[in-house]
Structure to design on (578 residues):
């Protein structure tokens, strides 16, 4: 059973703005072959099941419709693993400055 | 009037939607076949540098610290020929309220929206500008909608844009996130038509006049601290606003001999509207995918005429690679204790190269930094690149291939600039202008004078190039 979300839940919806085939004429082929999708966040106007079509009220008060993708959508962008390619740089440039100081 | 929300229907209504949301009557400034009175458009927008400073001061925008990068200068000198190595300064624009110089652009736009009684503000931007508009709108108690190109068809968000989404939402704005494509303007028009909001476009006179204060501050502060105006100011270049506004501000302060150097990240070979290429770019702005088309025809924007006219102001145009910008970002953090960028550090990478060409008593200024955070960081970008199959390695940046291979220099002397021939850029501009002329018409004198001002050529030179282009086309 899909999860039932209460009215007023903060969600993200997904809608198709332009289907493939109806995209801007200047879209390159790979882009033209997929739909233009839109994701917007807001509060559920009525209770709805996750994945179902529902209406939301956005923070500016607009009503938008789409498939409910996520409840309380997280910010999951981050940094990730440190990169050896960057870790070495500080030591290298400090060594150049140090060598220059020694040569003075 | 055509109804409906199809791409064609909305684009057919673009004229009226844009006119209603602009707060300016652009038709009043049109001249000849393709010309317009640029200076009058900017002057009549009604903000002198002093007035802009006043508006910006009310929301703590501007007056950012000018920081001398003594250790980066020493690094440049250590690897430069004897007697070379100009002093490098940076304007720490990250210290604006939303973390970038874009607050300067947003401040006058939101002030205008409020003054004219618009119900809210909207802007199409995937970058720092969205956070800036959202921040200014919050202060002005205006609702705000930001439209972003944010994720590819697999649902993978560009981490830098994901951070901008978060920042805009932190200021209470509604963010409309779109998948990849050339329909950002179309989607903005849909929002503007529905809401009647002010279009806080990056390309209105307000957005450009707001940056004049940056050039003005740089000229005054450098003069005060070094006894001379800067020899060169380096500007990260995309849509042309940064170059235009900064150069105008420098001139307003009297720094008429300062060389304006535009710097872009080279993304040659990657298509800006390609779903496949979208997450294979580690930079979402400051790159040639924007700067070349916008320099060679500025009016491809969401207002009738762009107030950003970079070719009028650029003295030199150079490119750097993604790997060089990541390298200098790390150097800035580790030698100067400033964690900034990366995109805003594009011109800093060029500064490390250009400082080595100039005598030690010369002064060059990198005119912005931007805030750093989750997603908006070399580590986040390089991890995404690896995930998308882009190779990341140390080596000679000459081996860089956008979308395939990011090469991080092994030594600061590998950080160099590649000059873009301005003559070629001017020719492309004139070819585009010719394409805009109604069929079977000759440019009028006012058109030729406009094109001369746009390209910094004489009227005779413009005529010569146009004749040659017509002959070739014929």
């Amino acid at each position: 059973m899909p999860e039932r979300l209460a009215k007023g839940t903060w969600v993200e919806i997904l809608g198709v703005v332009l289907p493939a085939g109806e995209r801007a004429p200047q879209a390159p082929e790979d882009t033209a072959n997929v739909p233009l999708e839109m994701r917007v966040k807001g509060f559920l106007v009525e209770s709805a099941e996750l994945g179902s079509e529902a209406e939301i009220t956005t923070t500016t008060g607009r009503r938008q419709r789409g498939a409910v993708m996520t409840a309380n959508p997280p910010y999951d962008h981050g940094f990730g693993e440190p990169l050896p390619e960057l870790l070495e740089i500080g030591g290298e440039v400090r060594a150049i400055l140090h060598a220059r100081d020694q040569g003075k | 009037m055509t109804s409906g929300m199809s791409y064609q229907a909305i684009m057919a209504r673009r004229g009226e939607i844009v006119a209603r949301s602009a707060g300016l009557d652009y038709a009043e400034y049109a001249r000849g076949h393709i010309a317009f009175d640029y200076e009058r458009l900017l002057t009549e927008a009604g903000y002198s540098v002093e007035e802009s400073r006043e508006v910006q001061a009310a929301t703590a925008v501007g007056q950012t610290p000018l920081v001398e990068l003594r250790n980066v200068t020493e690094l440049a000198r250590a690897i430069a020929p004897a007697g070379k190595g100009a002093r490098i300064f940076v304007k720490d624009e990250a210290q604006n309220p939303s973390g970038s110089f874009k607050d300067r652009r947003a401040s006058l736009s939101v002030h205008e929206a409020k003054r004219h009684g618009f119900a809210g503000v909207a802007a199409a931007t995937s970058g720092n500008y969205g956070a800036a508009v959202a921040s200014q709108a919050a202060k002005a108690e205006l609702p705000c909608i930001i439209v972003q190109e944010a994720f590819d068809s697999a649902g993978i968000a560009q981490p830098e844009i994901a951070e901008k989404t978060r920042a805009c939402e932190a200021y209470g704005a509604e963010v409309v996130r779109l998948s990849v494509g050339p329909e950002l303007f179309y989607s903005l028009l849909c929002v503007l038509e529905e809401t009647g909001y002010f279009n806080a476009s990056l390309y209105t006179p307000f957005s450009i006049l707001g940056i004049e204060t940056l050039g003005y501050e740089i000229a005054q502060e450098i003069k005060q601290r070094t006894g001379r105006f800067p020899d060169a100011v380096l500007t990260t270049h995309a849509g042309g606003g940064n170059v235009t506004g900064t150069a105008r501000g420098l001139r307003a302060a009297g720094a008429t001999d300062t060389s304006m150097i535009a710097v872009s990240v080279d993304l040659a070979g990657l298509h800006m509207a390609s779903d496949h290429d979208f997450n294979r770019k580690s930079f979402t702005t400051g790159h040639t995918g924007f700067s070349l088309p916008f320099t060679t025809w500025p009016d491809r924007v969401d207002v009738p005429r762009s107030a950003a006219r970079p070719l009028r102001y650029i003295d030199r145009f150079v490119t750097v690679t993604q790997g060089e910008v990541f390298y200098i970002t790390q150097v800035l953090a580790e030698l100067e204790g400033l964690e900034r960028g990366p995109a805003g550090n594009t011109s800093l990478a060029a500064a490390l190269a250009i400082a080595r060409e100039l005598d030690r008593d010369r002064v060059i200024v990198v005119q912005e930094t931007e805030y750093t955070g989750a997603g908006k960081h070399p580590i986040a970008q390089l991890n995404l690149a690896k995930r998308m199959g882009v190779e990341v390695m140390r080596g000679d940046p000459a081996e860089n291939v956008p979308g395939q291979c990011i090469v991080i220099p092994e030594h600061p002397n590998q950080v160099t600039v590649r000059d873009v021939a301005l003559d070629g850029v001017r020719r492309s501009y004139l070819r585009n202008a010719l394409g805009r002329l109604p069929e079977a018409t000759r440019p009028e004198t006012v058109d030729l004078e406009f094109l001369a001002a746009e390209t910094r050529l004489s009227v005779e030179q413009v005529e010569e190039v146009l004749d040659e282009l017509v002959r070739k086309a014929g």
About this structure: The longest strand of chain A covers residues 10-18. The helical segments of chain A are 29-32, 84-87, 89-103.
